[in-house]
Amino acid sequence: MHSAVADNTERRARRVIEALKANNMEGWYLPRADQVRDFVAQLIPAGATVANGGSMTLAETGVMDLLAGGGYNFLDRSKVSGEALDRLYRQVFSADWYLASANAITEAGEIYNVDGNSNRVAAITFGPKNVLLVAGCNKIVKDLAAAKDRVEAIAAPANTVRLSCATPCAATGRCEHCHSPARICCTTTIHSFQRVPGRIKVLLVGEPLGF
């Protein structure tokens, strides 16, 4: 990334962080993805009960390896299925920390997420004592209209391919506003303010990450 682009990216991210703070959410900025794992390790105390929502960003930054590394009581959704997975989704509400990403974050400090099963947006909204969302600079958008456009044009089609979902957007590369049983955009949440100060925390990274 050219230094001029990096400088502009940081300035924009820091404006978003100030907007998040005005909305009772915490925010930090890191220039590089390879700094994220160490930051998270310092932020979350050893032995804490942690859980995660599906996120390519957490995998790309090494955070998933950190959570599974033995230093935490990790409610690992990848190790269970069926009824056990259903029970784990409910255990997550009592976790000390919940980690995920965001589909988009507006310049006004609003967090926009779209979910299929809705366990991810439910946990972000209520339950875990602390929520940490890690997001690359590609997730920053001008406003909620741009957030919706981003999900329909980028995030949803890419994730349906990643998850092998038999949806129209997996074939066309754009949202078709379908009624497919495999649809992954079933619930939309907009976090425009956090009643519990600092419960939702956002780590913005100056590189593109995830979808």
Structure, explained:
The protein has helices at residues 3-22, 36-43, 56-60, 63-67, 82-91, 119-125, 144-162, 168-172, and strands at 26-30, 49-52, 73-74, 97-100, 104-106, 111-115, 130-136, 140-141, 187-191, 200-205. The strands form two sheets. It has a six-stranded parallel beta sheet, with helices on one face. Strands 8-5-6-9 form a four-stranded mixed beta sheet, sandwiched between helices. The mean pLDDT is 96. The chain is α/β, with parallel strands linked by helices and 211 residues long. Helices cover 37% and strands 20% of the residues. The chain is globular. It is built from eight helices and ten strands.
For this structure, the quaternary state is single chain
Question: What general form does the structure show?
Answer: globular
Low-pLDDT sequence parts: none
Helix content: 25-40%
Straight-line N-to-C gap: 19 Å
DSSP, total strands = 10
Beta-strand residue fraction: 15-25%
Strand order of the largest sheet: 1-10-7-4-2-3
Please describe the biggest sheet, giving its number of strands, its sense, and whether it closes into a barrel: 6 strands, parallel
What's the average pLDDT? 96
Helix and strand element order: HEHEHHEHEEEHEEHHEE
- Structural class, by secondary structure, is alpha/beta
What radius of gyration results from the CA coordinates? 17 Å
Query: Helical stretch count?
Result: 8
